[in-house]
Amino acid sequence: MPDLIESEAQLDALLASPSERLIEFMRQLDGDLMILGIAGKMGVSLGQLAVAAIKKAGARKSVYGVARFSNPDARERLEASGVRSIQCDLLDRTAVADLPKTPNVLFMAGRKFGTGGDEPLTWAMNTLVPANVAEHFRDSSIVAFSTGCVYPLAAPHRLPDEQTSPDPIGEYAQSCLGRERMFQYGSQRWGTPVCLYRLNYAIDLRYGVLHDIATKIWHGQPIDNSAPAFNIIWQGDANQQALLCLGHCSSPANMLNITGPETLHTETVAKQFGELLDKPVRFTSTPEGGCYLSDSSRATNLFGPPSVDAEQLIRWQAHWIKTGGRSLGKPTHFEVNDGAY
Ligand SMILES: NC(=O)c1ccc[n+]([C@@H]2O[C@H](COP(=O)([O-])OP(=O)(O)OC[C@H]3O[C@@H](n4cnc5c(N)ncnc54)[C@H](OP(=O)(O)O)[C@@H]3O)[C@@H](O)[C@H]2O)c1
Fold first, then answer.
1. What is the per-residue pLDDT across 189-229, written as a single tens digit (0 to 9) for each?
2. Residue 267 lies in a domain
C-alpha cells in the first residue's frame, strides 16, 4: 500500500486492485455476475474490481451492471473498464423480469437520504425492489448489501454481532430490515442462497466519515460529536469482501457484519485530523447516547483483517483534503443517532 494517495487515478487503481485470494476465488466461481445498483458511491469501484479480478484469473465471465444511470459518467466509466451496463428501474417489476438471469448477484440499490418527507419511496426502494429481485433471481446466489443501522444503538465497549437481534430506529433503518426480510423470505421460499452484508461505513477518500470530519476541520467548522464512536473499512476491502461473500451464501440466509476491527472515537479522530491538518478543533456537543457500531469478528475470521488499517486511512484522508482531492459532496450524516434521514 502506498504511503499517501496523490491522485484520483491512483485511488481508482488501488480500489480496483484485487487480492490474490479474490483472483483465485474468481477462477473457481461458476458463471456470470450481476451488480444491481452499480452506479453509486461503491458500485462503480466494485464493478471495476470484479472485472480486474476476472481478467487476472484468466477466467471467462461477464460482469453486468444495472442502474437507472442518472449519472451518465458512471455508465461510461463502467463500460470503459469492461462492465456490461444495463439501464433498468428496479422499481419496475416487468423490467426486472427482463434482466438476464446470472448465477451470481450483488444487490446494492437502496434509498436513505430524503426519507423524512417521502417515506413511501424509501419503503418501496428498500422492500419492494428486494422483493422483485429475490423473486426474479431465485435460482442465483445473492449477496444483499445491508447496513449496521438494523442493530440497536450501541456503546463503544459492547458491539452488536450477528447474534444481536435487530432493533432499527426510524423508518430508514426499519425499511433496511424490511429489505433483509424480503431476501430471507426468498431464501426460505425458494431455497435461494443469500448472504446479508451488513456494512458500516466504507472509506474511499472522496466521501465517508473520515472525509466528513477532515473536511469540517479543514474549513474551520465545528465537529458534531453526538455520535461518540464509529467503525470504518477501506472501500477496497469492503468490495473484496462483498465479492468473497458469494462463497458464503446459504439458505436460510447467512449474515455478516462488514467493517474494520477498530472502534474509533469521534473526538480522538478529530484531534488527530487537527494535528495532521494543523488546524484547531471545536465540537458542537458532548458525546452521549449510543451510536452505530458492529462487531466484524466473523468476517475477519473468514476473510482476514482489512489490508488498510484505520491509522493509515486517517493519514491518507488528511493528505487528500490538504491537497484538494475531489469530494463527491455526499455527507454520510454519521452523527445522526435518532434515525431521521
Ligand atoms: N457507502 C457506505 O458506506 C454504506 C454504508 C452502509 C450501507 N451501505 C449500503 O450499501 C449499498 C451501496 O452503497 P452506495 O453508497 O454505493 O449507495 P448509493 O451511492 O446510494 O448507490 C445506490 C445505487 O442504486 C441505484 N439505484 C437507486 N434507485 C434505483 C432504481 N430504482 N433502479 C435501479 N437502480 C437504482 C443508483 O443509481 P441510479 O440513480 O443511476 O439508478 C446507485 O447506483 C446501499 O444499499 C447502502 O445502503 C453503504
1. 999 999 999 999 999 999 999 999 999 999 999 999 889 99
2. no
Domain containing residue 196: CATH number = 3.40.50.720
Separation of CA 283 and ligand 1 centre (Å): 30
Note the maximum CA span of the chain.
57
CB-based pocket (< 6 A), ligand 1: 37-43, 67-71, 89-91, 108-110, 125, 145, 147, 199, 201-202
CA of 80 to the centre of ligand 1 (A): 21
DSSP state of 74: H
Look at the chain and count its residues.
341
Residue nearest to atom 43 of ligand 1 (CA): 39
- Residue 115 Cα to ligand 1 midpoint, Å, equals 14
Total domains present in the chain: 1
Other residues' Cβ atoms within 10 Å of the Cβ of residue 200: 24
- For cell 484520483, the residue is 8
Q: Which pLDDT band holds residue 339 (cuts at 50, 70, 90)?
A: confident
- The boundaries of the domain holding residue 25 are 8-203+233-261+293-306
Q: Does residue 73 lie within any of the structural domains?
A: yes
Which ligand 1 atom is the nearest neighbour of the CA of 176?
47
CA distance 145 to 5: 27
Residue 30 inside a domain? The answer is yes
- The answer to whether the CB of 108 falls within 8 A of the CB of 46 is yes
